[in-house]
């Protein structure tokens, strides 16, 4: 399946400053027949008073003509899928209509709907599960144009990816109870090969922690966290409103033995002005819960390319752990005398995470 009629094309060299076009919210013509070519759409929201976080996410494998989607809501009552306030996932659902428009779509298999209201800015997202007394209806009002991550740099070696913060309003029906939504949160999109099995190193690769860590010193659990070649991704953001906040990707693999890790993509928002982060001057230090290994508390030092600085301190208030390694957490942030809300997406290979947790909990 190749959804060509509304597919976006790129005709000039793309840099971090290249603007996105309205067509970039539609499907893109795959460059080849790679079955792992994927398009994603992701929408997040939160209800701070309830310590509730929520996602609506879909991955379209357009060359295979299938979509996998999931909707979930979490709070402190439980983090595993069976314990969440709501969790539903449908895998490899046939997409059906080859001319589907991602800017006006209801995802097959009783999935959620996305409707563009204003190109690259405003959207309506809706989902209902009457059998579970669950529904969510969101209006996302973007407060800026989507911002691009630097092409060809980790973690986006092949991906085209953008992030956008918006004012999210609407209503959540949770176990039949209506709950108002009024927050600032993020949506993102990416399109590229995604999810293919990792290629084996013909030489066998590094077999010890020391061989995988650039500077093998410091606590053992932090050394394991810094191992290269494990697919580690960490993504943090928090916003108080449309004037103040930040978003960043963390490079744990390039971190120091002291626990500070550089931030290599993202923005600083202050006084309503977005600026790219200075990748050489922005960093994060994470403190993990010794019982779960999940993020518990973090310090963030941000500097943008114009020299503006911000420090942020964050605490996790609830988690979801979908695949057994790391978690996504709802975060309460303090910065510039403000309180903001957002997420920490701490993504691990489960086996790698288990080794780190063993080291974190070691008693001898």
UniProtKB/TrEMBL annotation:
Residue spans crossing the bilayer: none
DUF7065 domain location: 30-194
Superkingdom of origin organism: Bacteria
InterPro entries: DUF7064 (IPR055492), DUF7065 (IPR055493)
DUF7064 domain sequence ranges: 234-343
Coiled-coil stretches: none
The name this protein goes by in its record: Tyrosine-protein kinase JAK3
Native organism: [Mycobacterium] nativiensis
């Amino acid at each position: 399946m190749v959804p060509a009629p509304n597919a976006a094309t790129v005709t000039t060299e793309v840099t971090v400053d290249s603007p996105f076009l309205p067509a970039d919210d539609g499907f893109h013509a795959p460059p080849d027949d790679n079955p792992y070519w994927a398009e994603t759409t992701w929408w997040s929201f939160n209800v701070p008073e309830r310590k509730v976080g929520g996602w609506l996410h879909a991955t379209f494998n357009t060359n295979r003509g299938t979509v996998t989607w999931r909707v979930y809501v979490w709070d402190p009552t439980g983090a595993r899928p069976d314990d969440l306030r709501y969790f539903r996932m449908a895998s490899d659902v046939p997409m059906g209509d080859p001319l589907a428009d991602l800017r006006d779509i209801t995802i097959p298999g009783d999935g959620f709907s996305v409707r563009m209201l204003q190109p690259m800015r405003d959207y309506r997202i809706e989902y209902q599960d009457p059998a579970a007394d669950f529904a969510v209806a969101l209006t996302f009002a973007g407060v800026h144009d989507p911002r691009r991550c630097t092409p060809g740099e980790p973690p986006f070696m092949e991906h085209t990816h953008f992030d956008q913060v918006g004012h999210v309003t609407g209503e959540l029906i949770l176990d039949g109870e209506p709950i108002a939504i009024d927050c600032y949160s993020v949506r993102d999109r990416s399109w590229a090969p995604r999810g293919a099995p990792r290629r084996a190193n013909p030489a066998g690769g590094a077999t010890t922690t020391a061989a995988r860590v650039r500077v093998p010193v410091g606590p053992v659990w932090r050394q394991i966290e810094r191992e290269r070649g494990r697919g580690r991704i960490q993504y943090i953001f928090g916003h108080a409103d449309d004037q103040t906040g930040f978003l960043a990707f963390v490079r744990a693999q390039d971190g120091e033995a002291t626990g500070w890790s550089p931030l290599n993509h993202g923005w600083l928002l202050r006084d309503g002005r977005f600026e790219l982060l200075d990748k050489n001057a922005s960093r994060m230090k994470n403190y993990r819960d010794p019982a779960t290994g999940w993020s518990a508390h973090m310090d963030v030092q941000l500097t943008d390319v114009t020299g503006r600085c911000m420090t942020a301190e964050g605490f996790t208030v609830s988690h979801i752990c979908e695949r057994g390694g790391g978690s996504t957490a709802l975060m309460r942030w303090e910065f510039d005398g403000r309180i903001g809300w957002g997420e920490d997406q701490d993504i691990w290979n489960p086996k790698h995470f288990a080794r780190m947790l063993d080291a974190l909990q070691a008693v001898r």
